[in-house]
Write a structure and sequence with these properties.
This protein is an all-alpha fold. α4 runs parallel beside α6.
């Protein structure tokens, strides 16, 4: 029995139809929703992480990529948990490059916000921290919601290293974006910048807040003191 089948069997054993139904609603799998057509087993995230930890050493990168192409959400999320572990345990640049290639070659399976948010800043972020960032801007320009979110969330790693330029540049580029999930991602990253460098975030917001979608602004100023937060909300900065 190959490793993919063993992982699938473990997930199936944990199937919870009621939770699966709840997940379908939460992740908007209905027609026209951002997760349209996604299917669920109803397995909790901690259980998926445990399965990933159990199998990540023995599953090959090729099999990991195949798992990432599954129609089941939990199998794809488990696959990125596996790739993150493989990346973190990689000892050479070549090993890291192979994990990144597997991630990028199967990027169509990184197609919901939790799958993006569990992987982009843990694989692409650290890999690109000291490299050319053009890949991220290609993803940002793709007009694909999930690839755009991958690009933005990848900068979370840069922020953790006190490097904010790409986050700020992407935030400006995404000001006209129409989707709420991009507004939330950009606002979240700006908030993370502000936690480390208030002046950098404040300078950006002061210049652009009137053009920002409301959700993006609310996420960005969430940790501000109430008086300053209200000034931004009513436009009195």
């Amino acid at each position: 029995m190959n490793t993919i089948v063993r992982i699938q069997d473990e997930l199936k054993k944990l199937e919870n139809p009621e939770k699966a139904k709840s997940c379908q609603k939460f992740f908007q799998t209905y027609k026209g929703g951002y997760g349209e057509g996604d299917q669920f087993w109803g397995v909790s995230v901690p259980r998926q992480r445990a399965i990933a930890k159990k199998f990540f050493k023995e599953i090959s990168l090729q099999e990991s990529g195949l798992l990432l192409s599954s129609k089941y959400h939990e199998e794809r999320l488990t696959a990125v948990f596996i790739l993150v572990l493989k990346y973190q345990k990689a000892k050479t640049e070549d090993e890291k490059q192979k994990v990144v290639n597997t991630y990028l070659n199967n990027i169509e399976g990184v197609n919901n916000w939790d799958i993006v948010d569990s992987s982009a800043h843990k694989i692409l972020g650290p890999y690109l921290i000291d490299k050319d960032k053009s890949l991220l801007y290609e993803l940002l320009d793709s007009e694909n919601l999930w690839k755009q979110r991958i690009a933005i969330i990848a900068t979370y790693h840069f922020i953790s290293k006190n490097k904010y330029d790409d986050t700020i540049k992407m935030a400006k580029m995404m000001l006209p974006h129409k989707h709420d999930l991009i507004h939330k991602a950009v606002g979240w990253m700006l908030r993370e910048v502000g936690k480390r460098d208030f002046n950098t975030e404040y300078t950006f917001l002061k210049k652009h807040y009137k053009a920002m979608p409301r959700t993006m602004l609310r996420y960005a100023i969430e940790k501000f003191d109430e008086e300053l937060r209200q000034q931004f909300l009513i436009g009195s900065i």
